[in-house]
Amino acid sequence: MKIPIEFTLNGQKVRTEVEPNELLLNLLREKFGYTGPKYVCGIGECGACTVLLDGEPVLSCLTLAVDVDGHEVTTVEGLAKSRELTLVQKALIEEAGVQCGYCTPGFVIMIDKLLKENPNPTEEEIRDYIRGNLCRCTGYVNIVKAAMKAAEELRKGTTKVAEISKE
Amino acid sequence: MEEPKHIFIGKKTIRKDGIPKVTGTLKFSSDIYVPGMLVGRVFKSPYAFADVKRIDTSEAERMGAVVITPDDVPDKIFNPRLVSIFEVTYKDYRVLTKHPRYLGDAIAAVAAPTEEAAQRALEAIKVEFERVYEPILDPFEAMSPSAPLIHKRILKGDEWIDVKNNVGCTLEYSEGDVDKALKEADVVLERRFRTNRRYHMQLEPKTSVCIPHSDGSITIYSTTQTIHNTRILISQIFDIPMSKINVVKVPIGGSFGSSIQINPVVPISVALCLKARKPVKISMTREEDIYDHAAYQMHFKIRAGAKSDGTLIAGELENIMDIGAHQIQAYPLLGTALGWFVSLYKWKNIRYVGKAVYTNKVPTCAFRGYGAPQVSWAVETLIDEMAEELGIDPVEFRLKNYVGKGDIFWGQGPTVKSIIRSDGVPELLQRGKELIGWERRRPPSEKTGRYRRGIGVGRSFHTSGAGGPISGETIDYTGAILKLNEDGTIDYITALQDHGGGTLDAHVKIIAEELGVPPDLINLVWSDTQTTLYDVCTHASRGTYVGGGAAVQAARELKNKIFNYAIRVLNKAVNQDMLELGYDKELGQAVVYVRDNPQMRITLKDLATIAWQRNWGTISTTVTYRSKAAPPSFTVYFVEVEVDTYTGKVRPVKVIAGADIGTVINPDYAAGQLHGGFAQGWGMATLEDTIYDPRTGELTNKGFITDYKILTAPDMPKLDDFQVIFAHTYEPTGPHGAKGLGEAALNSVAGAVANAIYNAIGVRFYELPITPERILEALKKKGR
């Protein structure tokens, strides 16, 4: 039995029908084509499927699609506008915090959220905030550097979105 | 040799796939969705060692699923890795099997319109087993004459060979007289080591999408390190001409060796697709992926001898590899393991016995370092002990005996030899010592209290590719296509895969350097097998070294053709040899000019436009390239650890990661390799293993990553305590002096960590990982 739901997805009102056991991750990827959230473990261990639900990070592999009815969902694709990037996205590229890129969407969402809560985090606070996100390529070094750089830019009053610099 | 001045090489640039990656818009193979696509699921053997009697697919078919069994796939035995030449390729894999040899061998597969329908159909398949055997999980038991044979006959090339004592293949080698040398030695050490059975834990679970076309051709998107070998293997298994198979290069979500071979899901998806005549996608679950491959687990016995002056005079290695249920690259690894051993230190007299033994476990494949992390951990532990026995500083002992400049390097085993022309080991050891504060290092006997710190050193290397002056048992060449567009920009087309390390951005910088065209005007083309030349595989740390070599050659040929056109326009120029091509900073573009008369010039943009307007034709080059050497990239890690003697927990306090990679092309991504290499090496040393239920051959973690720990962000040292250094070297055979890095970045870590733990608590560990439990047990035995 399909259940009709209605929610806001990356700023747009959407309506669809879902199975009662359908996962938010699969709904986003298969029906709406938002493949930024990734399946890596499926059991809430790695953070690669993280999205924002009413502004709070949730693991979409552990969230039932029916439960987002009437709520607001933001995926990594919903953070940036056209060629503009968020400070975190820009810093991740500039600090080489991206290697294979599979874990990246989860880190983008988490660090973005961290800086909203705490624009002046210490290195330990950053590491602690992203401890639920696994990365196998970077050893987290350049991801942490990127988070610190984005925080610094934010404190300097750099606008929320920025053009990526050339070379 | 003096390092030439570079404009683009060695500078930080923005990686080409950066924006698609941070915005989540880049499509990996797991992100491919095609209209009308079916979802495939694989029936995996619930037994580790069994023979199938009957497969009942009627219920699954009644549910509307497309089902395949071993009777529906070609009766072909193959090796999923095509990097070795035919004659030394051992084959024991089938697309689907009636004789599962580990808990996870594929027996049947289904495809249905949704994941749920596919899963229900999968559960409706009934498999009746003729016999279920006791699993053989210990390689030494497997070798006993009374043990049943896991494979009775396998193919070596095209010839059947009988397997004896479950030994899949062997390699023996000797040089000099080890017995005599050991008698003459002042110190002899004999140690046994056992490495762990690690899982790659690449974040993207292996995926394959196969799409059929009305003309009988198929297109494949899959998680792979080699699109061309994927095409060849599928062609061989299914007897489809290669011209009717196109494999598309899509980004890979981490690899670390897990996709050098063509993974089982690929031929299964093709078989399902051919039967269904619809697109089929198989994306593994994480639990299935853990059951797909593991790292080669090695049991070593090493005997080594040295004179009292600190000169090594003998080294003997016995290497029993527990390869699991299938051979992928066990035979070449027997050779490389020997190669790593002899290229670490000058043993002078060498003896080696290597055996690859079948067990009913998850098949093993290359895992970043291809045996070098295992061999290096064991040798570096033993070398440290030897130095202590001799009363020589461990760094001095290494400097005295290591294989360096002018010596013969065995690259990837006895068939890939070349002379070492660049060597940053002395510099890395010296600077590393200073940066870690080596003089602070005190013997473990002086350490007391709950928290004890120790400093250790470990060194290793990896090859840069598997090329060489002659053709050996390994295939290693690549291709590059460069096309000057009508506005002076460049399209660069290669089959070589970038695993995320920034390899292809390195190629772009090399091309930019050669042509003076800035990197942002060079387009990295996402390509496929039908529009690229053959590339063997991104493995063996060859991406920058071999692929970069091809980029240099292609760019130089392109430059000649550019000059050929330029001479028609620069009307006073008479000699093509007098032309130069370079980057004009003010214009922000490439300019062709006459040497010593730089005012006589034309921009590449204008030249390209003229060539177009006057019908001169496209300037392009196509090169196929093999490197003539496989130089070692040396790495040296200095690590300080802290052991909590109450809990047995170890944490990294400080890391100096040193690498000799010749010219550094991508400084930030090269550092990134060392960061990630350390994290994986730390996991190997202290955390990671897959453990089997001895009765069933099932993984005790059931495949869940909850019980396969890798490092998280708080587990790493602080930013200020992790320092990367590069040696000032230049590799004459490399593109602009560069060598590889990916694997070397990991190879020396576990040795350094183990030696640091010893320095903290005075205990040597001969088994990995060095878990808190093992540390506590050892401390208890030692009476703390």
Cα radius of gyration of chain A in angstroms: 16 Å
Note the quaternary state here: heterodimer
Number of strands of chain A: 7
| Terminal-residue CA separation of chain A | 53 Å
The average pLDDT value of chain A, as a whole number, equals 94
Which two chains have the most extensive interface, and how many residues on each?
A-B, 67 and 66 residues
Main beta sheet of chain A: 5 strands, mixed
**Uncertain ranges of chain B:** none
How many structural domains in the coordinates of chain B? 3
The appropriate CATH architecture of the largest domain in chain B is 2-Layer Sandwich
Poorly predicted parts of chain A: none
Q: What does this molecule look like?
A:
The complex is a heterodimer of chains A (167) and B (784). Chain A is of the alpha+beta class and 167 residues long. Chain A has five helices and seven strands, in the order ββαββββααααβ. Chain A has two domains: 3-78, Ubiquitin-like (UB roll) (Roll); 85-162, [2Fe-2S]-binding domain (DNA polymerase, domain 1, Orthogonal Bundle). A five-stranded mixed β-sheet of chain A has the order 2-1-5-3-4, covered by helices on one side. In chain B, the strands form nine sheets. A seven-stranded mixed β-sheet of chain B has the order 3-5-1-14-11-12-13, with helices on both faces. In chain B, strands 9-18-17-16-10 form a five-stranded mixed β-sheet, sandwiched between helices. In chain B, a hairpin with a 5-residue loop joins strand 11 and strand 12 (218-222). The mean pLDDT of chain B is 97. Chains A and B meet through helix 1, helix 2, helix 3, helix 4 and helix 5 of A and helix 1 and helix 16 of B.
Highlighted features:
heterodimer; A: 167 residues; alpha+beta; Ubiquitin-like (UB roll); DNA polymerase, domain 1; 5-stranded mixed β-sheet; two-stranded antiparallel ribbon; 5 helices; globular; B: 784 residues; Aldehyde Oxidoreductase, domain 4; Aldehyde Oxidoreductase, domain 3; 7-stranded mixed β-sheet; 19 helices; 27% helix
